[in-house]
Design goal:
Blueprint: H1 2-30, E1 38-42, E2 48-52, E3 58-61, H2 65-92, H3 96-99, H4 104-112, H5 115-125, H6 128-147, H7 154-159, H8 168-183, H9 186-196, H10 201-207, E4 222-225, E5 236-239, E6 242-244, E7 252-258, E8 261-267, E9 276-278, E10 282-288, E11 294-299, E12 301-302, E13 307-310, E14 313-316, E15 318-324, E16 332-338, E17 344-348, E18 351-357, H11 369-374, H12 378-385, E19 393-399, E20 404-409, E21 424-425, E22 444-446, E23 452-455, H13 477-486, H14 494-501, H15 507-522, H16 528-538, H17 550-569, H18 582-591, H19 601-620, H20 629-632, E24 634-637, E25 654-658, E26 673-675, E27 677-682, E28 690-693, H21 710-715, E29 719-720, E30 730-736
Parallel strand pairs: 1-30, 3-7, 11-21
Antiparallel strand pairs: 2-3, 2-30, 4-5, 4-23, 5-27, 6-26, 7-8, 8-9, 9-10, 10-19, 11-18, 12-13, 13-14, 15-16, 17-18, 19-20, 20-22, 24-25, 27-28, 28-29
Length: 738
């Protein structure tokens, strides 16, 4: 009898515990999910509707563009408010305020680069029409915050804070954070400088080229083909920009409809308008240009007084102090000097380096995307792009009239007598920017004779370009593979573009594998530990598939060969060298016979194979044929907050999961980055266009749209992009409260 009572109490306790858990989950995680049906009121001019489709994508129909942008801010906050808040904090240097010392170092760097000061300065000079766009978006975000104080997304509850009101400066900060991500090249300059110390200048310059040859067309992982190559007779445009993986996804899909505005595509959470997408007449894609827009200056500076030399004169640096609130700790202080070139970002052993960056140029910031979203032809599109400040981008274009085009954009500094690839003498005044390349002289193409524009981060500037060009451009492998695939036949349909986007053939890795096999044959390699690896490489077809062993073998060979070449150029510094053009540089060295680099190229390749096999055996065993490249190229997308929750954290994450692809395949996939979304626009029928994000539309873990797009992303199957005909799964009516 006693034991039955004990068991009863235990069962009751368990039931109470489970019930409390269910209530807690409901209260902090389910209750904050967005309201997507019924009627709400908001301070808009006229009644509007927000229809959500099966993926949770909001299709906003409003009486005017300001109401549409207001509601874009509102729906983005519904799904991504915590992500938006985290992005503005990361940009401004305010992470430690809510996360404590774990965010302090990132905050110090953001403050050193003056991100909030830059954003505030840009806002003051922003044209009134563009201020109005940001203001409408901020009002929408704030309407959500004000009406949901008691049911904010889960991350705010777990982190123990509430978001402050959104502002136009916050939207500029989020844009600057993307600018920073895509253009921060100053560390590359210090790495090259380190290699030059005690190294062979000619060899080091060879390892750091601005172009690798064989570029076909300008751009970066986006292409457009004219109607002569398609089944419909109208153009098709494809775009899949490569960025770091994030949870939630870095993009947010939205459809904005108002008089004079009907556009759909992806937006950056925290920033108004559609950034990549299509309207009723045109489609466009964009990805990073990689033109170098930063210079480091070695200043002759007295840190005690802040005085420094410039062109024979003494100038006074401006002293700035930043106070960083730190949760649970005393506030931290950042004190820095700002010269005419910019903030001093590096100080070591009496060396002081200041940074000039186009993002910080006074009066340079404009926001043309509402005009891009409303453009109806090439002339209107490029007129809007002319105002785009950066980061430097490649825009690929197509329209319903059958035209295709390309234009580079952004503020690109003119360097008259230097490359800018290493830190410069700041005192001489001989290395100053001479303005910016005029928009009309930036690389462009319109209806090329080939009927296709193919791009994949390669150098788009011709060899006889009138201005010096420097940047971290990609080698030609991806652009060549895209072009070769497109040339195989005509009659293309949207699904065929998806097949190209997920292509994982690597011409470089295939070349290196065959060259290693040839070297082993010449050296009569009989080492039993290498025989399996040689056989695996000999039978391989260059596909960087996750289930195969050969891609892992050749990747390890490449890593060792890269270090060996860099050590020849600068002894003991091989680990420093890891630039995007390295595969093409190494292929040139191998193709030339490696004269001046290695005494015996075949012996070097065999040694790299041996070292690679030894390294791989430590992680995947001695039987090379059983290796899996996917285990070497394994991805985990971690939610920054949810991942820290014991036991339940894994439900916030994606992976670990094995990935196919590499840095030299069209599907450029590494453990850090990959296609951030896929977009295929069918100019013959917008509703036949295809699109998907990496994970899902919502940032809320209990939403059915948190990661409902991952399986399609992983398989490369995508979803129809609803535009003219929207299959409504829910409708929220918004009435005016004015």
């Amino acid at each position: 009898m006693h034991s039955r009572k004990v068991l009863k109490y235990i069962n009751l306790s368990i039931a109470v515990f489970l019930a409390a858990g269910v209530v807690a989950v409901y209260w902090i995680a389910y209750r904050p999910l967005p309201r997507v049906s019924g009627t709400i009121s908001a301070p808009i001019a006229r009644q509007a509707t927000i229809v959500r489709d099966s993926l949770g994508v909001p299709h906003i129909s409003a009486g005017g563009w300001e109401d549409a942008i207001f509601l874009q801010g509102f729906v983005t906050a519904q799904d991504r408010l915590w992500q938006m808040d985290a992005m503005r904090r990361a940009a401004a240097g305010d992470l430690a305020e809510v996360f404590g010392t774990i965010g302090l170092e990132a905050d110090r760097e953001a403050r050193r680069f003056r991100m909030r000061r830059i954003a505030e300065a840009h806002y003051r000079t922003l044209p009134a029409a563009e201020r109005a766009v940001f203001a409408a978006y901020a009002r929408g975000v704030n309407h959500f915050i004000e009406t949901h104080r008691n049911r904010l997304p889960l991350e705010f509850t777990l982190s123990g804070y509430e978001p402050r009101p959104w502002s136009a400066v916050d939207s500029i900060l989020v844009g600057l954070q993307m600018y920073r991500t895509l253009t921060f090249s100053w560390r590359d300059k210090t790495q090259k400088q380190m290699m030059l110390a005690g190294g062979d200048p000619a060899k080091i310059n060879f390892l750091f080229p601005s172009r690798t040859g064989s570029e076909y067309q300008p751009g970066s992982n986006a292409w457009a083909i004219s109607g002569e190559h398609t089944a419909s007779g109208k153009p098709i445009l494809a775009s899949d920009p490569h960025l770091e993986f994030n949870a939630p996804a870095i993009w947010y899909t939205v459809h904005l409809k108002a008089p004079g505005l009907n556009v759909t595509g992806v937006s950056l959470p925290g920033v108004p308008c559609v950034i990549i997408g299509h309207n009723e007449r045109i489609a466009w894609g964009m990805t990073n240009l990689y033109y170098d827009v930063q210079d480091l200056y070695m200043e002759t500076l007295d840190p005690q007084t802040g005085r420094y030399r410039f062109r024979g004169q003494t100038e006074q640096a401006r002293l700035e102090q930043e106070v960083i609130p730190v949760k649970g700790q005393r506030a931290a202080t950042v004190v820095q000097l700002v010269t005419r070139h910019g903030p001093v970002v590096f100080a070591d052993r009496n060396r002081y380096m200041s940074l000039r960056w186009t993002a910080a140029e006074p009066g340079a910031f404009q926001f043309p995307f509402l005009d891009v979203d409303r453009a109806r032809n090439w002339d209107e599109f490029t007129a809007a792009l002319k105002r785009f400040p950066g980061p430097g981008q490649n825009f690929v274009y197509a329209d319903v009239d059958g035209n295709i085009g390309y234009h580079a954009s952004g503020l690109l500094p003119i360097r008259r007598n230097y490359e800018g690839d290493v830190p410069l003498d700041g005192a001489s005044g001989d290395f100053e920017w001479d303005g910016f390349i005029p928009f009309e002289q930036l690389p462009a193409a319109y209806n090329p004779e080939s009927g296709m524009i193919v791009s994949a981060n390669q150098n788009p500037f011709p060899a006889d370009y009138p201005y010096r060009v420097h940047g971290g451009f990609a080698p030609h492998y991806r652009s060549r593979q895209i072009r070769d695939l497109l040339l195989r036949h005509d009659g293309w349909k949207p699904a065929g573009m998806l097949a190209i986007q997920k292509d994982v053939y690597s011409a470089f890795s295939n070349y290196l594998a065959h060259r290693v096999v040839l070297a082993c044959g010449r050296r009569h390699v009989t080492n039993p530990e290498l025989i399996d690896a040689i056989a695996v490489l000999r039978a391989w077809n260059g596909q960087m598939e996750k289930d195969l062993a050969a891609p892992m073998v050749v990747s390890l060979v490449y890593q060792h060969l890269r270090r060996e070449a860099a050590n020849v150029a600068s002894p003991g510094k091989g680990d420093i060298y890891d630039m995007q053009a390295a595969p093409a540089v190494l292929q040139q060295i191998v193709e030339s016979g490696a004269g001046g680099w290695f005494k015996d190229l075949d012996e070097t390749l065999v040694r790299c194979l041996s070292d690679g096999v030894a390294e791989g055996s430590r992680s995947q065993g001695a039987n090379v044929s059983r290796w899996r490249y996917g285990r070497y190229n394994e991805l985990t997308i971690k939610h920054p907050i949810g991942n820290e929750i014991p036991v339940l954290g894994r439900f916030f994450n994606i992976g670990p999961i094995e990935m196919s692809g590499s840095s030299t395949t069209v599907k450029q996939t590494t453990r850090r980055l990959g296609p951030s979304m896929r977009f295929v626009a069918d100019l013959s029928n917008w509703d036949q266009s295809l699109h998907n994000l990496t994970i899902g539309e919502s940032g809320q873990i209990l939403s059915s749209h948190y990661k409902d797009q991952w399986d399609a992303y992983y398989a490369g199957t995508s979803f129809p992009m609803q535009f003219d005909h929207v299959d409504a799964k829910s409708t929220l009516t918004v009435v005016s409260s004015r």
